[in-house]
Structures are given as C-alpha cells and as structure tokens.
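Morning!

This is the sequence you dropped in the shared folder:
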Amino acid sequence: MLFASRSSFADWYLVPTGSMLPTIVEGDRIFVDKMAYRLEVPFTDIEIMQTGHPKRGDIVVFNSEKAGNRLVKRLIGEPGDRVAMLDNKLIINGKEILYEDSNNTLHKIEYLGNVSHIVQFTPVAEAGDNFAEVIVPHGHYLVLGDNRNNSADSRYYGFVPAIEIQGKVTKVLLSLDPKNYYLPRKQRFNKPLI
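The structure's back. Tokens below.
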C-alpha cells in the first residue's frame, strides 16, 4: 500500500540538473502532489477523475516523451494563451510580464499573475531568449525553466501534452549538495515552493 500511495497521491524526485535554478537546485528532493490535477489508477496513467487544472506559475513534473525523460519546469502558458519572448521578457496574451531587479545581477523577480518567483539569466552562447508569438494548443501547456538561458524546455521540445503532467511540485523535502560530499543543506529542508 505504501507504493500505491506514493505512486497515486504523492511522490518525490531527485533533481539532477540546474534548469530550475535558483528555485530548485541540484541535489534537491522535491515533493510532488500527484492529486493536484487528477487521480489515477495506481501504477498507471489511467485517469479516474480530474481534480484540478495546471495554472500559470505552477511548477510541474512531467514525463516528456519528446525528451525521453522526466522533467520539472515552470508552467507559463495555458491552453489558448498567446506567448512570446523578447530579450528574455515574456509577453502573454499581448501583455509584457512584470520583472523587478533583485540583489543578484543575474536574477530578476518575475510576476506571473499572483505568482512571483526568481528567474536566473546566466550568459550563454545560444540563450534562446527570443521567440515569436505562439498559441498554446488545446490540451497542451508551455513550460520554461527558471534558469532561462540554460534549460531544455518548450523552446526545444514543444508544448507539453496535459496527459504527460504527473503533478505539482509544492516543496523541497530535503537537499544534499553533490558538490560538497553530499552534505545536507539544512536551510532547504521542507522549503515551500508555492
């Protein structure tokens, strides 16, 4: 029954990459609410009932068929949204998203409706910091990493089908630093992300 609970209601995952920096760091073990959007038959992707809809600003875990991997990203565009990016600034449904400076020159505070979070803009050769307006199709979502210039996301793999979304990330359970002998980062234990 423990495995069924973990599979159907909640789960945790190790984050191996920095695509969601600074929100989620390498070595974080994140808690995923698998009932946030739907209830499934244990150990399957068979939906019993829908419990909610992913919303702009949510951090979601999904099994990407195109990437061939499980990914964690920030949900930016909902079905029907028009989304563009110009010089690393998002434009959603014709309105530029608000950004504020932070004390770190590589970070900005991004406001997605009621959700504010820090995004990181590390200089890289091919940043993917511009894309023409796209319309998110029905039954799909547009996702981006918070580490905007260093994330394989919808700019590379396209829109995410709703069926691939496994759940909503709500907090960091614990964190071990892979660059420092896997010592615990106690300040990140049980850290809320919403």
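Headline: The radius of gyration is 17 Å.

More detail when I'm at my desk.
O.
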